[in-house]
Write a structure and sequence with these properties.
Distance between the termini: 23 Å
CATH topology of the largest domain: Aspartate Aminotransferase, domain 2
GO cellular component, one term: cytosol
Structural class: alpha/beta
Number of helices: 14
Number of strands: 13
CATH class of the largest domain: Alpha Beta
CATH superfamily of the largest domain: Type I PLP-dependent aspartate aminotransferase-like (Major domain)
Helix content: 40-55%
Strand order of the largest sheet: 2-8-7-6-5-3-4
Family: Belongs to the threonine aldolase family.
Radius of gyration: 21 Å
Cofactor: pyridoxal 5'-phosphate
GO biological process, one term: L-threonine catabolic process
Bound molecules: pyridoxal-5'-phosphate
Protein name: Threonine aldolase
């Protein structure tokens, strides 16, 4: 891709740095399905320690971590409670239904944030007509909620309530480390509120591949069994696990830079009378495009023609994500281009044709 392109589609677009490549090349490996891959084992121990859990298991993707959590917590005919914009419900092909025979019950949050009052009274009585309510899933930071950091006290209330009802509590923490960076609340304190937590190494942390599921030892033993069933057991996996370990060692402290860069974009967006910004807590920026401009797909196509890549996440919404591979200067430039596109579209000036809508 030409260096002039500024890619703000996702924090998954980062490429491994030279240091990360060197760590991958040097990684000691073994067959992690027969017995153990030492680099993967090291990563799993580092992750468990970081998250304050007994054990962790490396997974090929965040979706697999989440779906294996569903699988170990629920049986066919069970339901889980979640926010209606969450990743597990929207972006994993309903795998909980396809693979585990589980249903989801959704509740509308405010930028992805639920309250305990919405959940109280929703646990179904056990009788032969009803599905069994087994689990609550939360997401932190919340992707569709514009990278919102869940308020810690609210999460604690929901967790306390869930546990008092005998429910399992799972966190989709694909971007938990962004929540840690923004809140100053340590990862293990957040994770203490959950039985299991998934995190992604391939988002803000900048590894090319991978996720982990952490939790009590016996749950992770179960997760290992189901990872094999789901086709996610990997052999000399240290080649990629070492990239994730490198990311934990080198890319956590710098997440605040992504958040500062997001504020550069947020400031630009908020300057335009045609764009309405949602509050920006971390590295995700979501804004609404006024109807006068013709919709988000047109806006995204116009940005692309001027060298800025983004996603239209609904007919009226644009999402931008900052990451390891965009600089403050590029965010400044992208911000200027965004304001200019809004002005041009409002004045009826269009350079690009919409090829496809991404939502
Ligand atoms: C990216 C993401 C995942 C996992 O995605 P994969 O592409 O399967 O790794 C899970 N939850 C959230 C909130 C995400 O943003």
């Amino acid at each position: 891709m030409a260096p002039s392109i500024i890619d703000l589609r996702s924090d998954t677009v980062t490429k491994p740095t030279p240091g990360m490549r060197a760590a991958m090349a040097a990684a000691e490996v073994g067959d992690d399905v027969i017995d153990v891959d030492p680099s993967c084992e090291r990563l799993e121990q580092m992750t468990a320690k970081l998250l304050g859990k007994e054990a962790a298991i490396f997974m090929p993707s965040g979706s697999m971590s989440n779906q294996i959590a569903v699988r170990i917590h629920c049986k066919p005919g069970d339901e889980f409670l979640c926010e209606s914009g969450c990743h597990i419900y929207n972006y994993e092909q309903g795998a909980f239904a396809q693979l585990s025979g589980v249903v989801a019950r959704t509740f509308d949050g405010e930028q992805g944030v639920l309250t305990v009052d919405q959940l109280k009274g929703t646990v179904r009585p056990w009788n032969d007509h009803l599905v069994r309510t087994r689990m609550v899933c939360l997401e932190n930071t919340h992707n569709r909620g514009a990278g919102r950091v869940q308020p810690f006290d609210v999460v604690k209330e929901i967790s306390d309530w869930g546990r008092s009802e005998g429910l399992r509590v799972h966190l989709d923490g694909a971007r938990l480390m962004n929540a840690v960076a923004a809140s100053g609340i340590a990862a293990d304190r957040w994770c203490d509120l959950f039985d299991t937590v998934s995190i992604c190494f391939s988002k803000g942390l900048g590894a090319p591949i991978g996720s982990a599921l952490a939790g009590p030892k016996e749950m992770i033993v179960e997760a290992r069994r189901h990872r094999k069933l789901f086709g996610g057991a990997m052999r000399q996996v240290g080649v990629i696990a070492s990239a994730a370990a490198y990311a934990l060692e080198h890319h956590v402290a710098r997440l605040v830079d992504d958040h500062a860069n997001a504020q550069i974009l947020a400031t630009a967006v908020s300057r335009s009378e045609h764009l309405t910004l949602l509050p920006v807590d971390t590295n995700i920026i979501i804004f609404k495009v006024s109807a006068r401009l013709g919709g988000a797909a047109i806006f995204a196509a116009e940005l692309k023609s001027r060298g800025v890549l983004c996603f239209a996440t609904s007919p009226t919404q644009i999402r931008l994500v900052t990451h390891l591979d965009v600089t403050a200067e590029e965010c400044q430039t992208a911000g200027e281009i965004i304001v200019e596109v809004a002005q041009d579209l409002a004045a009826g000036v269009r350079r690009a044709q919409v090829v496809e809508a991404a939502y």
